[in-house]
Here is the input.
Amino acid sequence: MTIDINEIADLVQHLQVRVEEDERNVISVDIYQRNSRVMMTPESFLAEFIDFEIKTQNSIEYSYQISKLIGGVKFFAIMSTAEIVDLKTAMPNQWEYIQKEIQSEAA
Here is the structure.
């Protein structure tokens, strides 16, 4: 089976245009044969997903990663502790969900 280089180039160019058009929401896209990833801004991620995983990270600046796997693509955002705290007033439902997930991860 031969690959269609032009088709792949067209798909990548289309994706680049879409990411550029939506630069306030999507930060980066990594495409692999398996486990592709889309990094989003925390605000966009939280507006899009109501249930997701949250994991602590060994990072001083970004202590948390929130993620959702859909169709083999991992959508994710990284957040600082201050950003999580700010959710309490900005997005109280998401803040409450994250607090529950953090507590269950620690248990």
